[in-house]
């Protein structure tokens, strides 16, 4: 019953008589076919790379179409939605489509133009970044099939149509499956280049915009999906780490006599910021780890940091207008306008605490370093194949082509698996090199919490003035926060001119008609490891702003809905969303003892509006959310029911974060350990949620984040409407 | 030496007496459908059936599970057609999927015990299991669907 992991299943397999189409970034197409003399041939990814192409798609003799997708699956459904886009233009039979993860480049073909051209799945960029690229590639392959079919049938190509992986000559009734065409002999590849004008008009879409079943789901009901933590390779050993209690400390002295006596221990290795224990079983490694006595260095600058102090300092920094700040968005002259009307300025400060991702699968990496120590095979659940391969290559001082990479499905990510490979994977590689065996390096939940990369504490100081009609004349949104970008991507930060998109995006308020507007960042020194968290800057920036907009409405003596309508007068898409969500929720008519709160909050080019219905929990005195309605406009929706599922998930993630999630640290050590002291939302606290899509037909944007930004403002505004109390500090619970 | 009855098969493994059932299932037997989420009885990712009752595999010593009948997600049905597995597909419940073996195993024990649970009983019964992706509304719907379809035969 031992299901040893079959590494070969991830190879690029061409069945008999199969053909693969490599569509280059230039649009040129290379057709790869297996040797018909052999009944079954496997083309290794290395072979494909060596001829500098990789294939988007292959078609086997049973007319099964295998589409390779570039983004990594972490629950967002990209394994289905990206192939849907390709299959649409290919005119594939969706019921016979298989999706396969791309493990590595070439980046010219597979890189995401919206993430700097690398393979990087983050910030809800996978659909917006690949939409056109996938359509063009699919159309290219279809054109080759059409031209080849025309030659085979001896008819003009203009007389042919395609449907469900077949080319049809309607006049004669002749049909050829794509597989039969692939079998026909040589493919016609000198076809006219596809342009955007050749793409299918929307009315002809049969796959995009329909509720296809997700391709990853059946395996997930059977326990068959293999995450990196599930990888098992022959001869594999287990490693665990005693990690430095405070960032940056190193082990000075290790008493491991007792630990080494435990049965199954292979080695105990000092690494830069940890001590690794390697054993034949995971339980032996853990037992030995518990017996280690380690003296750590005491020199880390983080020894002196405390989260409560950081929070207090952050708030002061946001409020202190004398501190220098980097402008992020500047329209008109908000500073002058506020100064001119100084005695009427309305202001408020909002703060948010550190939070942790709590992805369900604790971090894990599997590595097998080659005998020459200049290459490795790696299995990792990662948001970026490119960055992970780069980290592995650097660890071995080798070139990326020596890393044989397997991008695994992830048990959640939410921003945690972006830049992490430089720690976890690098350590796994060092361990495998030392013990000369494949190693599975696993973190326990406690390791995961205590070494979390946190969304940092932030403070938002907002100020504004209103004119006589109660219109917002000027507004300033000042964010105090450490830079996430600086920690996550130091090389890129060097050229970013102090502009941190991971912190500041979402402060622009660009849909709002405010003549003088400034968003600015007071850059603080980080006190913990930091990273983006689902919703990124938008999550908390929209919370602060939407609470403040309600405070301004109150000041102006207007209801929050009309007040926002006026602010959004130049954005018809936004007004539609307000209409939709007020209608869905019957806004303002909450039952007795409850109240409604409204937030208008987008994510990049996705627009959204949410309404929360809340009460005060009689037992805790805290806010309780009963219902949540959301209207979202992401432009073209590729996969509607998955879009809704993602938005629901985002709303729950946002609500979870604002209720009880909080990481604290004292003297540089995170105090929380596990789900008993880091509480994420459970099923009993989930409100009734209704999500409606209001599609504008604009270019498609993302699904993963949009649920989060609307939650904070809607809940806080509802609670204020009910009780008069402001929830200006997150978490609220 | 430890003898266990897992998914209808009797298996003998070499493991120390104080190892949890979770690591025996996952790493000794390769039944990786049962997941590790917390090791502390807090998340339910490791939920299996012991003599038909939902339990946290991470909280039970493998030795204490000798002489019981253990069922994991791999053994819940012959061919993946347990009414809950089908309903999970119908409702398109999983997102990352990591919690879902545990969710399905918990739900299976729940409906075996109480074939017609009310919504409140479902929520109560499922509260031991975390889903960080937020698939909760679809978990409830899938259980309700499975219960209903089962009754209509
Ligand atoms: S792993 Fe057993 S309850 Fe979380
Ligand atoms: S589906 Fe991801 S944790 Fe439940």
3D structure, described in words:
- The complex is a heterodimer of chains A (733) and B (153).
- Chain A is an alpha+beta fold.
- Chain A folds into 3 domains: 9-221, Aldehyde oxidase/xanthine dehydrogenase, molybdopterin binding domain (Aldehyde Oxidoreductase, domain 4), CATH 3.30.365.10; 228-299 and 363-442, 2-Layer Sandwich (Aldehyde Oxidoreductase, domain 4), CATH 3.30.365; 307-355 and 454-730, Aldehyde Oxidoreductase, domain 4 (2-Layer Sandwich).
- In chain A, helix 17 (536-556) runs parallel beside helix 21 (709-723).
- Chain A starts with 11 loop residues before the first strand and ends with a strand.
- Chain B contains 5 helices and 5 strands; from the N terminus they run E-E-H-E-E-E-H-H-H-H.
- Chain B has helices spanning 21-28, 83-90, 100-113, 119-125, 136-151, and strands at 2-6, 9-13, 47-50, 53-56, 69-71.
- A 5-stranded mixed sheet of chain B has the order 2-1-5-3-4, with helices on both faces.
- In chain B, strand 3 and strand 4 (53-56) form a beta hairpin.
- In chain B, helix 2 crosses helix 5.
- At the A-B interface, helix 6, helix 8 and helix 20 of A face helix 1, helix 2, helix 3 and helix 5 of B.
- Bound molecules: FE2/S2 (inorganic) cluster (FES) (2 copies).
- One FE2/S2 (inorganic) cluster sits between chains B (94-100, 131-133, 135) and A (75, 360, 412).
- One FE2/S2 (inorganic) cluster (FES) sits between chains B (94-100, 131-133, 135) and A (75, 360, 412).
Defining key terms:
heterodimer; A: 733 residues; alpha+beta; Aldehyde Oxidoreductase, domain 4; 3 domains; 21 helices; 23% strand; disordered N terminus; B: 153 residues; Ubiquitin-like (UB roll); DNA polymerase, domain 1; 5 strands; 35% helix; globular; binds FE2/S2 (inorganic) cluster
């Amino acid at each position: 019953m031992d299901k040893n992991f079959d590494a070969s299943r991830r190879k690029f397999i061409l069945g008999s008589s199969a053909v693969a189409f490599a569509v280059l970034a230039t649009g040129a197409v290379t057709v790869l076919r297996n040797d018909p003399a052999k009944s079954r041939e496997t083309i290794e990814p290395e072979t494909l790379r060596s001829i500098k192409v990789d294939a988007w798609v292959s078609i086997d003799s049973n007319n099964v179409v295998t589409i390779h997708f570039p983004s990594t699956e972490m629950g967002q459904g990209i394994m289905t939605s990206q192939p849907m886009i390709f299959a649409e233009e290919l005119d594939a039979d969706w019921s016979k489509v298989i999706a396969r993860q791309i493990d590595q480049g070439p980046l010219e073909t597979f890189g995401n133009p919206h993430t700097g051209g690398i393979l990087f799945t983050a910030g809800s960029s996978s659909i917006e970044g690949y939409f056109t690229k996938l359509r063009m590639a699919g159309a290219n392959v279809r054109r080759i099939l059409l031209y080849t079919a025309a030659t085979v049938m001896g008819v003009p190509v203009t007389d042919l149509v395609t449907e469900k992986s077949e080319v049809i000559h309607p006049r004669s009734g002749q049909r050829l499956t794509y597989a039969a065409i692939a079998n026909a002999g040589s493919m016609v590849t000198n076809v006219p280049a596809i342009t955007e004008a050749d793409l299918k008009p929307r009315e002809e879409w049969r796959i995009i915009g329909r509720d296809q079943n997700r391709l990853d789901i059946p395996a997930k009901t059977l326990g068959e999906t293999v995450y990196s933590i599930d990888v098992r390779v022959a001869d594999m050993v287990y490693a665990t780490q005693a990690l430095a209690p405070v960032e940056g400390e190193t082990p000075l002295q290790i008493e491991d006599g007792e630990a080494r006596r435990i049965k199954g221990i292979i080695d105990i290795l000092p690494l830069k910021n940890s001590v690794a224990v390697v054993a034949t079983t995971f339980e032996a490694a853990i037992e030995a780890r518990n017996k280690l006595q380690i003296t750590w260095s005491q020199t880390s600058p983080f020894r002196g940091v405390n989260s409560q102090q950081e929070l207090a300092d952050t708030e002061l920094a946001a409020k202190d207008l004398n501190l220098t700040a980097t402008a992020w968005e500047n329209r008109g002259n908000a500073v002058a306008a506020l100064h001119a009307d100084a005695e009427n300025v309305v202001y408020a400060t909002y703060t948010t605490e550190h939070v942790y991702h709590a992805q369900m699968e604790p971090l894990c990496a599997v590595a097998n370093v080659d005998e020459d120590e200049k290459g490795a095979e790696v299995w990792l659940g990662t948001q970026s194949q490119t960055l992970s391969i780069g980290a592995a290559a650097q660890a071995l001082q080798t070139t990326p082509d020596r890393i044989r990479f397997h991008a695994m499905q992830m048990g959640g990510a939410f921003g945690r698996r972006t830049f992490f490979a430089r720690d976890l994977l690098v350590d796994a590689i060092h361990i495998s090199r030392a013990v000369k065996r494949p190693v599975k390096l696993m973190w326990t939940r406690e390791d995961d919490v205590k070494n979390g990369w946190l969304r940092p504490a932030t403070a938002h100081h907002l100020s504004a003035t209103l004119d006589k009609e109660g219109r917002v004349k000027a507004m300033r949104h000042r964010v105090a926060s450490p830079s996430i970008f600086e920690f996550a991507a130091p090389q890129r930060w060097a050229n970013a001119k102090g502009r941190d998109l991971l912190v500041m995006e979402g402060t622009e308020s660009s849909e709002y008609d405010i003549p003088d507007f400034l968003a600015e960042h007071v850059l603080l020194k980080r006190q913990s490891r930091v990273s983006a968290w689902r919703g990124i800057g938008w999550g908390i920036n929209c919370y602060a702003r939407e609470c403040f907009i309600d405070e301004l409405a109150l000041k102006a003596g207007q209801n929050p809905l009309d007040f926002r309508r006026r602010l959004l007068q130049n954005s018809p898409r936004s007004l539609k969303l307000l209409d939709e969500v007020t209608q869905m929720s019957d806004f303002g008519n909450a039952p007795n003892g409850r109240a409604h709160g409204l937030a208008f909050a987008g994510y990049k080019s996705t627009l959204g509006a949410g309404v929360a219905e809340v009460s005060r929990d009689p037992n805790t005195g805290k806010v309780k959310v009963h219902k949540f309605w959301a209207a979202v406009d992401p432009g073209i929706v590729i996969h509607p029911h998955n879009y809704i599922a993602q938005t629901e998930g985002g709303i729950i993630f946002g609500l979870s974060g604002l209720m009880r999630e909080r990481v604290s640290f004292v003297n540089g050590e995170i105090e929380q350990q596990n789900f008993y002291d880091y509480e994420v939302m459970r099923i009993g606290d989930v409100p009734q949620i209704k999500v409606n899509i209001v599609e504008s037909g604009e270019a498609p944007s993302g699904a993963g984040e949009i649920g989060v930004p609307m939650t904070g403002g809607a809940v806080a505004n509802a609670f204020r409407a009910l009780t008069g109390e402001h929830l200006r500090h997150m978490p609220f619970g | 030496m430890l003898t266990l009855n897992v998914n209808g098969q009797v298996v003998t493994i070499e493991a120390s007496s104080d190892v949890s059932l979770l690591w025996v299932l996952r790493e000794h037997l390769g039944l990786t459908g049962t997941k590790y989420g917390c090791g502390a009885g807090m998340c339910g990712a490791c939920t299996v059936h012991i003599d038909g009752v939902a339990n946290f595999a991470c909280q039970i010593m493998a030795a204490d599970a000798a002489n019981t009948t253990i069922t994991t997600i791999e053994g819940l049905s012959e061919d993946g057609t347990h009414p809950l597995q089908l309903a999970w597909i119908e409702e398109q419940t999983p997102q990352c999927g990591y919690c879902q073996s545990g969710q399905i195993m918990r739900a299976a024990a729940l409906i075996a015990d109480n074939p017609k649970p009310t919504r409140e009983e479902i929520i109560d019964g499922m509260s031991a299991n975390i889903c960080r992706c937020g698939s909760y509304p679809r978990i409830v719907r899938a259980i309700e669907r499975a219960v209903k379809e089962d009754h209509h035969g």
